[in-house]
Amino acid sequence: MSATVPETMPRNLVTETGGFAGTRRSQFPPNRPPGYFSPDADPAAVQTFFDANGYLVLENAFAPAVIEELKQETTLICRGDRGELPEHPKADPAEPDASVLQRFLCIHFPHKCSEVMLRAIHNPPTVKTLTTVIGPNVKCMQSMLFIKASGKPGQAWHQDEDYIPTRDRSLTGAWIALDRATQENGCLWVIPGSHRPGILWEQQWHGDRRFDCAEQSVNFPYRDEEAIPVEVETGAVVFFNGYLLHRSLPNRAPEGTYRRALVNHYMSCESFLPWGRTPEGDHNAHHDYRDIIIVAGTDPYAFKGYTSIQKPSVRPSGQGGCDKWGGQDRKYQGEATVPAHPDGGTDPQAGPPV
Ligand SMILES: O=C(O)CCC(=O)C(=O)O
Predict the structure, then answer these.
(1) Domain range for 208
(2) Is the beta carbon of 212 within 6 A of some atom in ligand 1?
(3) CA 160 to chain centre
(4) 263 - beta bridge partners?
(5) From the CA of 292, how far away is ligand 1's center (Å)?
């Protein structure tokens, strides 16, 4: 924690409750906490809540049949039926789905191999909300498909703009619940209002086995007790600003269950996207990643054209250690040695390999 709190630090948070208590009910309570909206909600109310808190929930954004299709597609992607994934040979047809799904925490860029995942990027209620919170011109640059079977770790506190930098702070995640997300199975936690100072906090290795290999943000002036769980029903979308501090905890639900979520990232078309290394000979200030999809309005930089750089990749779960990704000195709290790492590899939210 830093001693000085920026003047702009929000202290009167709009959110009053700590999310839904209890996780094993068949239904969440009918009275939602603030921040839960329906697709026909007043855009002004949506915008006011999002600007103040940095997140919101859009319930019933995806029809049950579409969620079912996305889940089936998730299984096909994991089995290698939409193309073989790096270091993950196509599954034997005799292997049960449950055993295949257990191998994956998250697959990056699923929309690059799947029409079904690509279509989800254009989901109309999602796009309508994006135009409310971002502006009329919106582009998408990334998708991540979390499978998160029971036993899999979460992601430590972080801000997405640390990984995907916009020039106007417009980065917005749209986190689609393919399964009901609860505290037990590792839902998102957010610190409401933490996006408002517009500061990217220092990042460090966490040394905590509850989390995957991504670093955690530190030295921010908020306490864990200020965080709230964002528990949602299947088909809801959690929108969150790229400066919002958020994390998720491990999935501690009974074995054989999942907390699947498809997360797509969007931003304004007006901003360049200096993501990944600046290409040789280019100026940093001109770097503009163009492997993007326009989902609303117009792109003022359409004259630059578009490209396709990314391919689906598998994010290391961190189970067994993070030495291959973060280096040999990545020790865990209270543990003397770093165990061998079966799935270490690439930076989990890395930019394009330019
Ligand atoms: O789904 C999760 O567990 C974490 C997602 C997340 O942190 C992100 O999309 O930035």
Answers:
(1) 36-62+104-311
(2) no
(3) 8
(4) 144, 175
(5) 20
